[in-house]
Amino acid sequence: MFLENKKIALAVTGSIAAYKAAEIVSLMVKEGAQVRVLMTPEAARFISPLTLKTLSRNPVISDLWSEDEGWVPGHIDVAGWADLFLVAPATAHMIACFANGLAPEVISCTYLATRAPVVIAPAMNCNMLDHPATQENLDRLRSRGNIIVEPAAGMLACGYEGRGKLAAPGEILEHVVNIIG
Ligand SMILES: Cc1cc2nc3c(=O)[nH]c(=O)nc-3n(C[C@H](O)[C@H](O)[C@H](O)COP(=O)(O)O)c2cc1C
């Protein structure tokens, strides 16, 4: 097992590709990783928190304001716990939050609070990806040392053909293993 006892925070954002997070969690757990999932309310429209809770064997963190756990805020707790912070799929919106240091919800707060390596796997419509705003944001994240897993080209869920598909779960796993495995 390549990820024995490695601690991975997986952030899932509101892309149509969010259902693929289930396979990503499953692959990492099979490699021996401990996984804690964070998700935005938009991500929860695409995949059930119950699915990710069950596959990751841990409660899903989605509410910045939750009072369910101990005194340490959830985003600070998971930010300090993680050996690696993986964002898959990452929306244009979340990438913009990261690039600009905005922290309106639990995932962007965790991004700012963690000192773990960050791996970001974007997924979006090809025009959204190619837009100079998104490209400049991605360049900014690369320049900070964040790893961007390049999206694949092909037929997109929105009906367009081009670059923007979430990289294959196996390819995302390879990046994770290369960094902390
Ligand atoms: C059906 C549907 C599919 C979407 N897919 C994507 C996507 O793949 N990538 C993306 O960047 N935004 C996508 N969006 C837009 C995001 O859901 C929207 O920007 C949302 O505010 C993102 O929230 P979050 O980044 O906080 O999760 C989609 C919206 C809808 C309605």
The major pleated sheet works out as:
5 strands, parallel
Find the CATH superfamily.
Flavin prenyltransferase-like
What do the pLDDT scores average to? 97
The ligands bound in this entry are: flavin mononucleotide
**Which topology does CATH recognise?**
Rossmann fold
Structural class: alpha/beta
Q: What strand order characterises the main sheet? A: 2-1-3-4-5
* Cα-atom radius of gyration: 15 Å
Our count of domains comes out at 1
CATH architecture: 3-Layer(aba) Sandwich
What is the count of β-strands? 7
CATH class: Alpha Beta
Distance between the termini: 9 Å
Label the overall shape. Answer: globular
Low-pLDDT parts are none
Give the count of helical stretches: 8
The fraction of residues in strands falls at: 15-25%
- The secondary-structure element order is EHEHHEHHEHHEEEH
Helical residue percent band: 25-40%
Describe this structure in words.
- This protein is α/β, with parallel strands linked by helices.
- The chain has 8 helices and 7 strands.
- It has a 5-stranded parallel β-sheet with strand order 2-1-3-4-5, with helices on both faces. Strands 6-7 form a two-stranded antiparallel sheet.
- α1 links the parallel β1 (7-12) and β2.
- It is globular, with a radius of gyration of 15 Å.
- It starts with 6 loop residues before the first strand and ends with a helix.
- Residues 13-17, 40, 42-43, 91-94, 123-124, 128 line the site of flavin mononucleotide (FMN).
